[in-house]
Amino acid sequence: MLLRQAWGSLRSKPAFVSGIVTTLGLTLGALLTVLTLAYVMLIKPLPYPQQAQLYTLEHQLIDQDGKIDGRAFTYPNLMHFYRSQQTFSQAALIYYDADVLVSSPGHPTLTQSFVTPEWFSLLAAQMALGRPFEQTEAVNSYHPVAILSYDTWQKEFAQTPDILNRKVTFGGTSYRIIGVLSPQFREPELLDTGMKSQIFLPWDFNSISEDERKKWGNDDDQLKVVAKLPAGENPAQVEQTLTALINNTWQEQVAGSAFLNGWRINLELHSLKSKLLAGSEQSVYLLLAGVLGLVLIATTNITNLFISRTAEQQHNLAIHAAIGASKGQLFAVLLVQTGLLMLMAIVFALIVATFGFGLLQQVLSHVFPRVDELAINPFTLGSALILAVALALFFARVSAQMLNYRQLNTRLQTSGKGSGMQVSGNIRNTLIITQIAIVTSLVLVCLVLFKNALETINEPGGFETDNISFMVLALPTADTDRAQRTQQIQALRRQLLSLPQVAAVSQSLAPMAFTTRALTASTGDARYSVKAKDIDHEYFRLIKQALTEGNYFTEADMKDGNNVMIVNDVFARQIAPDGSALGLVFNNHTIVGVVKGIKLPGEKDIAPRFYYPASQDRNMMLIKHLPGQQLTREQVVAVLARVSSQFKLFSLSTLNERRQSRLFNQYTTAVTSGVLALLTLLLAAIGLYGIISYGTRMRRFEIGTRLALGAKRKDMIALVLKGNLRALATGIAIAIGLLLLLTLVFPQELAAYIQPELIPVFVLTLGMIVFISWLACYWPLRRFINRPAIYSLKDND
Fold it and tell me: What compartments host this protein (predicted)?
């Protein structure tokens, strides 16, 4: 009976129902999306057996000053650990790489993982077809087999059923396909968030050269370890044991290296789950706080709608009271109505959340780990149920508290004359204060994040990226005469320069990429571990990196292999604080020039760097094309075919694309914070208008009387503004207090944001809040002050 009556009552107010269902559905859908994301990332166990016992190892290379120079394994240390450790019950090695699939007509570049067999057993990798690696693929077995990801099987092989009878070829080696991973398998993203391996190959075939496999001082961040620690083992004690095992051997191996004198190795264990989070918790908390703010604003808006709705239902509620309904029964009437509305809203919210999961998986897979696990799950449904019940009870309680039961009993007897329900000023002021406090806090935080992200995006780097492409070639691994390869590479360079859209070519690494090199001064014992890049004589001119002293490399330096180097001004000041760095010699290379340092996208500081001549058979090129012209993959492939059938295109990208990729987090922050700020202001404007408009309507008789007695329009505007000023000021004061409290509780985390430049942002935020508040006061008043006073005095209840 109550359900039928509630449904009939709601059907008569379609605008009221659609407004509540839409507003709450969208905001609660966003909240369920972010709550589920937080659950998956922070609470949900990893989808691997005994996941709490899985760890990764951080190999720290510590210099003579006690500073960490690198956090990646060297190849010999990694192999020594794998063969000698007795602490872990299992340990798997992983090397991440990519290569051109030459056995496919399209020559796609696939991401590769070279792994030991333990990788599959540790993660309990399910197979759609075939088998995982076993002891037949153990280290030093050199068994050329491959396992495809399910996605690769679909996209590159059209899900052909005879896939286990096929082979794939990379760099001259053919691998027989022995398995396809299940689509349910979730690969841990150890190298980069969002990076998925498309093919798995045995460890023996990794691309690290024989020479590099013997270098104890060269670390490589593509080398990773996943290991299982037996239950009951103390991670701190394991760290000490492993550090001693690795460091002792390493010290023996590098004893003859003057540069590494005084250096040491330290190993740290990190749980696999903490490694996968990679510091993304803060982003989740900020996102959750923002969405919660939107939900609270929407809730205050809808509270005002329910207040108005309760006032409209006085007559029906009075009938219930007149025929003997108790306060509890009246509350039940209201609860059934709010329950139906919340049921509809939460169903809509679950639909919105489903789309939200898809959006996160498409757009933010490189920002948040484990987004591929997002789906409607028991946590999502449980959260939805709790939200629906809590909101239904809250709105019913707010509506019930407005009712004067004694007045309802007398309302029918007096025909409602003089018994109109009015909302308490305290309730309206509380709603206004809540709105303003949340809006001011949330908008200010969003604008600060938006401003910082935009500044980082627009900050000049000191080099040009427009109209420049970066090309990487996949060269055959078979031994080729170096002179012949140099001739072919130089022929390729000339062919590219002959293209009408190409203005210049540099045989160099991209400006954003650097390696780390050890430098030792020819005089004294100064040692440096510095970012370095091999380039040719055209590099600096092509990207327009300014020369501050000395000369650029010459073409003769490239051809003759001269021992010269160029440093940036940051490194120059470090090695020659009181003079010129020109002429100084490191590793038998003489400094001939100093260039202005460049700031890489997304980085705060300019690091010390140096540049040295590239080999003429370097397989990477920067290609500058004319404005408005493009260099397509098809054009490059055609040029390669004319030069050598052995050359394959590994990758082709523009520097702007690479810049945007490095700034992806900043772009995401800017868009998210900007949209969140706009939505907050929009919801606040709607909510404040509704609350203040209701108060203004309640005062229309007073307004009409004052106008009839000669009050001016500006007097009425001032009256309404004054009536709401205290609530507005209180809301702003509470917001400022909350923000100050946050700065006291999290001083280190917020230090980067609390700067003098924050003042204009704060003023802008207050300006927008004041404007919205003024508009909310003025707009509903127009209907009374723009007409004769008699209209405001009519039909006053």
Answer: Cell membrane
